[in-house]
Design a protein that fits this description.
about 25% strand, extended, metalloprotease, 5 helices, 8-stranded mixed β-sheet, MPN_BRCC36, alpha/beta, metal-binding, Cytidine Deaminase, domain 2, JAMM/MPN+_dom
């Protein structure tokens, strides 16, 4: 049974897009967590990398916190500098996931595609599943089935999505550290190569700070200031309403209490 529609919360969409825009040299991939309903899937959180123990920890923690049947329902990956449509490898990968869960869906974020006329970058989103078009008994031949996706506005940044967003620079730094660590185990490297590898590692960390950590800190600080301003506005409104209630209660036209004997 194919999924009829996918509803993606805007804060989860933002985390996926931030991950997709973290690099234009290679594709990134992660999993989507959410719950099923009668009209499709509602995704409420994301995790950035496919580590089994980490997925289980996120799954149990999120399901416990929200008291809702949260589970892994999809995967997403990026297509930097290429079309948004899934390749034959993507379609086969999606088909394997659907063997485990027929409601599993795939999201593709096409990023770093420049419009020729406006010279501006265009971001595209595709949601799909795989269907087998081969007759029964023959080798499967999978085709993509595009699924309507609706980005649902959320007025606040959910705790789970905020945690994923904050962890993203750490995950990217950890990947660079692991890659650099592998070079340290290679024997008979000359000094110039070691210096080069160290410089590349340092450059990668600086890029993560410049592209991810810096803008993320600025965004969160701006959101904090907006929240503080909103709190002050609400406190002033509260005080104004309390003063109006007090004036009304002291007004001679206010109804007096009747005591029965």
């Amino acid at each position: 049974m194919a999924v009829t529609a996918v509803h993606l919360d805007s804060d989860a969409f933002m985390v996926c897009l931030a991950h997709a825009l973290s690099t234009e040299r290679e594709e990134v991939m992660g999993l989507l967590m959410g719950e099923t309903c009668t009209y499709g899937c509602v995704f409420i959180s994301v995790i950035q990398y496919m580590l089994y123990i980490f997925i289980l920890n996120c799954y149990y923690r999120l399901a416990h916190e929200l008291q809702r049947p949260i589970r892994v329902l999809g995967w997403y990956h990026s297509h930097p500098h290429i079309t948004v449509w899934p390749s034959h490898v993507d379609v086969r990968t999606q088909a394997m996931y659907q063997m485990l869960d027929e409601g599993f869906i795939g999201l593709i974020f096409s990023v770093f595609n420049e419009e020729k006329n406006t010279k501006s970058n265009r971001v595209q989103l595709c949601c799909f599943q795989s269907i087998n078009q081969s007759p029964e008994g023959e080798a499967p031949q999978y085709l993509k089935l595009e699924i309507p996706v609706h980005v649902v506005q959320t007025h606040t940044l959910g705790k789970a999505c905020l945690q994923s967003l904050v962890e993203l620079p750490h995950i990217l730094s950890q990947e660079e550290e692991e890659s650099y660590g592998k070079t340290l185990t290679i024997d008979n490297l000359d000094l110039l190569t070691k210096i080069h590898n160290s410089a590349v590692y340092t450059k990668s960390l600086c890029r993560i700070m410049d592209v991810m950590s810096g803008p993320l800190i600025q965004t969160l600080e701006a959101q904090l200031e907006r929240n503080k301003t909103k709190i002050i506005q609400l406190q002033n409104e509260k005080e104004s309403l309390l003063q109006k209630l007090n004036r009304k209660s002291r007004s001679p036209h206010s109804p007096s209490k009747v005591t029965s004997v």
